[in-house]
Structure formats: C-alpha cells, structure tokens
Q: What sequence folds into this?
C-alpha cells in the first residue's frame, strides 16, 4: 500500500511538471518535432529511422555528425519518439519497439509491443505510451482495417501492458500535454487521459484534416496536407490563433 | 494455351508500362507504381542546397519548432522557415531548397536534414544557408509513395551516380 502511494504521489508530481505552461527557449539546444518525425536527438546522438534500419550518429561535434552504428530492427520503422536521455520509442508497422540508448551508440531492445499491421506513431510519458493505429487503403504496409488508439502501461519498460484500445476514425499524429492527449483524427481532437481506462473528448476542430501536432507548452501547432493551424489550449478548449 | 497466357500477360505489362524521357533522355519504365521517379545527378544534388525568398507553402510535410522559428517541410522540396515569435501572426521568412527532404532535427544552430539518400548538416543564418557536412548514402532510396515494395522497371538504365529525389504521379 505504501509503495502504491509512492507511485501515485510521484505520478502526480510528474504530471504536474508536464502541465507547465512555459513556452520558449529550450536550454538543451534542442528543438521539437511532431510525432511523425523519423529523426530525433537524444543524449548527444542523432537517431534516424528508415525502413528497417536505425542509424546512430555522434553529435560530439554537432557540426560533424559521425555515423557510429546501424541496427536492423527487423520491422518497418516509421517514427521515433525520444523520452528523456535514455529511452527511444520506435513506431513500426508491426508494433512499438522500446530501446534503452543510455549506452549509445549501443541500443538495447527492452521490449516490443506487437499489434496488427498498421501505420502508427507513438508518444509516451513516464507511465503510459499512446499508439495510434491507422489503416490506409492505398498503402499496403498499413491496410488491415484497424483505426484505434492503444494505451499501454510502460512503467516497466521491459514489460508493456495494454490497458485499453479506443476506436478512432483514421488517426495520424498525436501529442501529449500533461494529461491531455491531442490526436489528429479527421480533425484535431483533444482527450482527457487522466484515467487511462476511459477517453474523454474535451474539444475538437473537425474543419481541418490534421496530420501531425507539436504541443509546445500550451501552444498547439498542427499541420495538414494543405495548411498549418495554431491554437492556444486552455481549460479544455482549443482557442484558434492563426492559419498559414 | 499456356503460351497464349504468357503472351497475354506480356501485352498487359507492355500496356501498363509508360515511358518517360525526362532527365537526360534516359527512359524509365514503371510496371507497378502509379508514380515515376525523378532522378538527379549526384553532383547536382550536392550543389542544390540554397535559400530563396518566402514562397507559398504547398504539400505540407513534417513540422519542427526551435525557439521562435517554425520549420515546415514541403514534401521532397525543402523547408519553409517561419518566424513564429507571435503565433497569432506567423511570418513566412524563407525557403531552403533541399531536394528529397522529408525530415529535420535541430541541435543548437545546426539543422540535420535528409537530402534524398544523404544526411546533411546545414547552418541557416537568416539570409544564407551553408552545408557544413554531408554523409553520403545513409538512407535507402526514396520508395514509391504506395510503399517500399513498389518499384519500377528500368532502374538498370539509370545513369551512374544518380539519386531519386521524388516521385511524381504519371
């Protein structure tokens, strides 16, 4: 019971940190990409995923990236999501792969959460990974008829456990802002995920076929194939700022 | 009967294959993909990175934010640079031409980008862009839009030292 309380308490602490509304410069020198990114910088290394290969580059001298290793992941990799300095999540058409990269360029596969073949980015926090599974009829890499969100408990990175699957229309990119999950799903949809067993829709803009999103503090930057839209997110509501 | 079948299939394949004489008159055939590859000489690819003034954004790809600058990929063409210091009024500043580009990542003032099969490191200063490093042949060739298993006939006729920078609908 005591342990449970500690876990709960640290969860509260973690989520309160992530809810910070600060926007601005990042002292790490890093920028921020969307969930569909195939490039990520973590722990002084650049990771790129392409088809079944991950490449690791040293950025010891940032002006001269040096390729240190290549790893065949045995799956069709599509996206990279770095979490802190030691973990990267790879979204592939057959599942989510979690690697420990604290000993880069060595990569240790911690686990592989398999799912039906589909197109699927992933975002995560310390407790949960959120994977969207999308079907695309004109791409046979991901044409199996599944459109949903999987929420996976990853408190033990070596043993991911599916908590629930929630039906969506045709989800693409997604982004996390504290306990709020924003999903590009025939529009931009905002869900409260504070209870991982139920998804509560808070707000949506369905006039815009969003493809990917960057939550930059409470600034939500989303892109579709034909435009960019930005919102300020406050108290469960998307407030439109601009389109480009 | 069997021969008839083979002849029939060959006729079908001939019918499906289209002939494209772009880029130096080399014909490319494509029996599978609805798209045809656009090929660039490696020497041209390596001289292709440049900055031009702001232009209308289309074929929006991935997005990336670094401090107050927002970078918007135009699929296979390059990166639009947008001043986003006031998100209510973003201002399109410039376009960095990078053939075959899809992804970027930034550390400090260095932009890492795919330039078709190469990884390049570039520095953007506001009115100029400079390639400071190039790792050649890091990435597999750009696959056809329908998926990596689609291909085209005629790759054997490709000029040496050439790369696919995009695919266009036939």
A:
């Amino acid at each position: 019971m005591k342990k449970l309380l500690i876990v709960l308490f640290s969860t509260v602490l973690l989520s309160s940190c992530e809810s910070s509304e600060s926007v601005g410069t990042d002292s790490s020198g890093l920028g921020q990409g969307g969930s569909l990114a195939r490039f990520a910088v973590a722990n002084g290394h650049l990771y790129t995923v392409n088809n079944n290969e991950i490449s690791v580059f040293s950025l010891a001298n940032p002006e001269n990236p040096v390729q240190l290793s290549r790893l065949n992941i045995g799956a069709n990799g599509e996206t990279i999501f770095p979490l802190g300095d030691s973990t990267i999540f790879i979204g592939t058409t057959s599942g989510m792969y979690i690697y420990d990269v604290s000993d880069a360029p060595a990569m240790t596969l911690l686990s592989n959460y398999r799912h039906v073949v589909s197109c699927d980015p992933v975002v995560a926090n310390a407790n949960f990974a959120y994977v969207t599974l999308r079907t695309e009829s004109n791409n046979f890499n991901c044409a199996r008829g599944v459109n949903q969100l999987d929420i996976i408990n990853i408190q033990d990175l070596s043993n991911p456990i599916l908590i629930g699957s929630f039906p969506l229309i045709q989800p693409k990119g997604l982004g996390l802002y504290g306990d709020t999950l924003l999903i590009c799903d025939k529009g931009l949809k905002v869900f409260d995920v504070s209870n991982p067993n139920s998804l509560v829709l808070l707000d949506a803009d369905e006039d815009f076929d969003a493809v990917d999103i960057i939550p930059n503090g409470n600034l939500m930057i989303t892109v579709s194939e034909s435009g960019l839209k930005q919102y300020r997110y406050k108290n469960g509501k998307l407030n439109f700022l601009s389109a480009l | 009967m069997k021969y008839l079948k083979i002849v029939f299939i060959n006729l079908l394949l001939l019918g499906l294959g289209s002939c494209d004489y772009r880029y130096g008159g080399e014909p490319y055939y494509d029996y599978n993909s609805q798209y045809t590859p656009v090929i660039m000489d490696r020497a041209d690819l390596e001289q292709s990175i440049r900055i031009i003034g702001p232009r209308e954004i289309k074929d929006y790809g991935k997005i990336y934010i670094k401090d107050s600058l927002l970078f918007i990929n135009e699929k296979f063409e390059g990166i639009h640079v947008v001043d986003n210091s006031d998100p209510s009024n973003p201002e399109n500043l410039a376009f960095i031409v990078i053939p075959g580009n899809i992804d970027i990542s930034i550390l400090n003032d260095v932009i890492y980008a795919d330039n078709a099969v190469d990884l390049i490191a570039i520095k953007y200063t506001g009115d100029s862009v400079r390639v400071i490093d190039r790792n050649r042949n890091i990435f597999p060739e750009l696959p056809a839009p329908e998926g990596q298993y689609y291909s085209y006939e005629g790759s054997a006729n490709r000029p040496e030292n050439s790369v696919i920078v995009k695919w266009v609908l036939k």
